[in-house]
């Protein structure tokens, strides 16, 4: 057997080992993006190798990888849940490590979350962002340069950020850039055509693969000069099945193109009501498209409004559509 043939076999074996070893992704995440101060923090984990001293910790976002706050061994379990004591308001991160002490402080997975004063739709209060990166504005004009802010990254040379069409697979990369080891900064992206986009953060290529660490919505469209920033006039994400209904007729909302967060939500309110108003409303439960039967409404002018990822998204209206009941 020639040396060249042996080298090819070795390369194929290495590739197969890499693919096999990467087939099961290790994940750890909190059960919600924002907790109230001192509220117990519940997290879920899966895909672990099952070492007795695999371990998970909760730390302030941006702390060094050899930092640990509250922590616990998994006891050899490959998947499960943990509960930690509540924390003070701030930005935090759950980190997963393997096989102490052999695994050292090599972070295998991380997940950002916030502790703040979060309220259910209809309440008011301060809200915290849990995204690692997001656009400075929610809506940009077509071909207007876009500025992305990022913070709290782990500081790997090949952490990277991408801006892609909303709904594209996680292994898609449109406009993208490495952060070159910076934990905080800005990134200037050339203008894009009208459409619905998403800012995605990935850690430590190629080790981190296409595991999305955070997502933030971005719209490129147009709006009148006197309209508030949250008015989006790109294609509505939700409409009614017809522009006018008769009194006593059931109103049906149809939606598509949502980012797929468990707590994206849709409401129907009187036209002109403030953004923090909610009438009949419903979470989409992670579905990107579907229908909602609102039921019967009294005569009047109404508006279907779409909001993303409560409570992180606050009362920032992502889409509006007006209809009437006669």
Description of the molecule:
This protein has 326 residues and is mostly beta strands. The chain has 3 domains: 28-115, Immunoglobulin-like (Sandwich), CATH 2.60.40.1930; 133-220, Sandwich (Immunoglobulin-like), CATH 2.60.40; 238-325, Immunoglobulin-like (Sandwich). Helices cover 6% and strands 40% of the residues. The chain is built from 1 helix and 24 strands. It has one helix spanning 3-21, and strands spanning 27-30, 34-35, 41-46, 55-60, 70-73, 80-84, 90-97, 107-115, 133-135, 139-140, 146-150, 160-165, 175-178, 185-189, 195-202, 212-220, 238-240, 244-245, 250-255, 265-270, 280-283, 290-296, 300-307, 317-325. The strands form 6 sheets. Strands 2-8-7-4-5 form a 5-stranded mixed β-sheet, with no helix packed on it. The protein has a 5-stranded mixed β-sheet with strand order 10-16-15-12-13, with no helix packed on it. It is globular and about 70 Å long. The model is unreliable at 9-24, 117-129 and 222-234 (pLDDT under 50).
């Amino acid at each position: 057997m020639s040396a060249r043939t042996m080298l090819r076999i070795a390369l194929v074996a290495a590739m197969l080992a890499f693919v096999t070893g990467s087939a099961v992704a290790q994940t750890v995440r909190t059960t919600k993006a924002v907790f109230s101060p001192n509220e117990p923090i519940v997290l879920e984990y899966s895909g672990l190798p099952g070492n007795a001293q695999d371990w998970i910790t909760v730390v302030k976002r941006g702390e060094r990888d050899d930092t640990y706050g509250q922590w616990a061994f998994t006891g050899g379990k490959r998947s499960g849940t943990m509960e930690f004591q509540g924390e003070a308001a701030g930005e935090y991160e759950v980190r997963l490590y393997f096989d102490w002490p052999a695994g050292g402080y090599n972070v295998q997975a991380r997940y950002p979350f916030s502790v703040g004063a979060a309220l259910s739709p209809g309440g008011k209060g301060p809200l915290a962002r849990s995204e690692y990166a997001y656009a400075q504005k929610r809506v940009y004009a077509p071909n207007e340069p876009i500025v992305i802010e990022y913070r709290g990254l782990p500081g790997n040379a090949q952490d990277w950020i991408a801006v892609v069409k909303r709904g594209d697979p996680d292994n898609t990369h449109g406009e993208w850039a490495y952060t070159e080891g910076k934990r905080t900064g800005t990134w200037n992206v050339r203008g894009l055509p009208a459409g619905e986009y998403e800012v995605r953060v990935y850690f430590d290529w190629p080790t981190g693969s296409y595991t999305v660490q955070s997502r933030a919505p971005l719209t490129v469209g147009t709006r009148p000069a006197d309209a508030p920033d949250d008015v989006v006039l790109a294609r509505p994400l939700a409409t009614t099945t017809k522009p006018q209904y008769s009194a006593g007729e059931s109103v049906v909302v149809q939606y598509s193109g949502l980012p797929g967060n468990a707590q994206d939500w849709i409401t129907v309110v009187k036209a002109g009501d403030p953004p923090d108003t909610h009438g009949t409303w419903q979470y989409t439960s992670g579905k990107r498209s579907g229908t909602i039967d609102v039921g019967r409404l009294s005569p009047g002018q109404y508006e279907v409004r779409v909001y993303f990822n409560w409570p992180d998204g606050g009362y920032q209206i992502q889409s509006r559509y007006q209809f009437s009941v006669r």
